[in-house]
Amino acid sequence: MRQGVVDGCMLPNGEGSALRIVSVVGARPQFVKLAAIAAEVQGQADIDHIIVHTGQHYEHQMSEVFFDDLRIPLPDRNLGIGSGGHGAQTGAMLCRLEQTLLELAPDWTVVFGDTNSTLAATVAAVKLDLAVAHVEAGLRSFNRKMPEEHNRVLTDHAADLLLAPTNTAMRHLANEGIGDRARLVGDVMVDVCLHVLKKLRASPSPLASKFAATGRYVVATIHRPHNTDRPDRLRAVLQCLNSIDRRVLLIVHPRLRDRLREFGIALQTYKFELSEPLGYVDMIATLAMSDGVVTDSGGLQKEASIVGIPCTTLRGETEWPETVATGWNVLADDLSTIAELAVRSAPKEDSSHPYGDGHAAARILEELRFGR
Ligand code: UD1
Asked: How many CB atoms lie within 10 A of CB 211?
């Protein structure tokens, strides 16, 4: 039994006891963010770090591989919620998380990013009057059709401590009247990406080297409902990717796989080389050896600029406007320019580092200790 738990009831964590942090994760990008925090708390005797996995992502390549690759301790609890409609999935998580947080009695519930797991954990915690810290607070696309936009706005307004990655995010929070709870800490994904790049220099990824051995290529990934969930849009996206005058390595997310099956679209009729979702280390290595990436992922937009390849984003807006301002990223929701953009050369190096210096997790821990 963990300290502070008696017969499933919550006891306050006593003065002088370890700071108990419960990190709640569930979807792929959250495991990367968690890796930064987990590495930072390692060996710190005054911190009791507990990991709760909602089970939103459950396939090996969507979950376990990240824990292995990034040496994240295995989750203390896996709630096994799985897939479902937004309401059903978020509701099921909320119900199980309430029970779990009640038992664990954290000093801080730490939530990450903008998925349904983020929102469920936030609502569960605040309703129990438990303090919530939001890692990656203040991001906005201002596109209210995206489920993530609702998740992040609702989470920021409910949470107690808003850990913002950028000055832009700080401004958004101030504009919404919640700037007093915000702290600029930098981006935890930069911490992890820089660490992995360093490891790759000593020990390259055999999988990425294999892709690169047969010639130059562009990486493509799509998983946003905007691009995958309507057959006409999905066909148009695939057609544009197919018209790129280079090898295209299409990494197939389960949402894309499911929609292709549902709409009866066969990828064999396109020229793509196909891959299942990659673990984090292979993904960064594959990206770094490519000529560019075409994507609708948020994380890849930043990772492209860190590894130094151009990114083309299949969306009309981004939560990471700095990638566009620095020239590494171009938004191309109108698909007509994709073929050209995908093979453009990289912009000139710049030294602005809008996402921080790779020490965001250390600042986050300071804030959690200080704000206890
Ligand atoms: C979720 C996040 C999104 C994030 C993305 C990263 C929300 C609202 N969206 O989107 O912000 O960018 O994760 O990948 O939380 N599936 C599997 N196996 C799995 C996981 C999912 O087959 O391990 C399939 C299921 O059919 C499921 C579908 O993928 O219905 C979508 O999964 P879901 O977690 O609902 O949303 P994502 O599109 O992955």
From this structure: 20
Q: Which residue has the tokens 């992502």?
A: 57
Q: What is the tens place of the pLDDT at every residue in 57-105?
A: 999 999 999 999 999 999 999 999 999 999 999 999 999 999 999 999 9
In short, whether 115's Cβ falls inside 6 Å of ligand 1 is yes
Q: How far is CA 99 from CA 5, 62, 102, in A?
A: 12, 26, 5
Which residue's CA is the closest to the ligand 1 atom numbered 35? 83
CB 62 near ligand 1, within 6 Å: yes
Looking up tokens 């698909």 gives 335
Which two tokens mark 19? 């700071």
> What CA–CA distances, in Å, run from 119 to 79, 152, 356?
15, 7, 25
How far is the C-alpha of 26 from the C-alpha of 56, rounded, in Å? 5
Whether 223 is catalytic: yes
| Each residue's pLDDT tens digit, 328-349 | 999 999 999 999 999 999 998 7
Orientation angle between helical segments 254-263 and 231-242, nearest 10 degrees: 110
Within 8 A by CB and 6+ apart from 188, the residues are 32, 33, 36, 37, 135, 136, 165, 360, 361, 364
Containing 301, the helix (H) or strand (E) segment is: helix 298-307
- Nearest CA, atom 30, ligand 1: 83
Written as one letter, the residue type at 127 is: K
pLDDT at 208: 97
- Mean pLDDT computed over every residue of the chain: 94
Residue pLDDT, tens place only, 228-253: 999 999 999 999 999 999 999 999 99
CA dihedral 21, 27, 33, 37 (to 10 degrees): 20
Q: Which atom of ligand 1 is nearest to the CA of 116?
A: 15
Residue 349's CB is within 10 A of a number of other CB atoms, namely 7
Is 303 within 8 Å of 286 (Cβ atoms)?
no
Closest C-alpha to 185, from 110, 278, 264, 294: 110
Instruction: Answer whether 0.70 is exceeded by the pTM.
Output: yes
What is the 3 state secondary structure string of 48-113?
Answer: EEEEEECCCCCCHHHCHHHHHHCCCCCCCEECCCCCCCHHHHHHHHHHHHHHHHHHHCCCEEEEEC
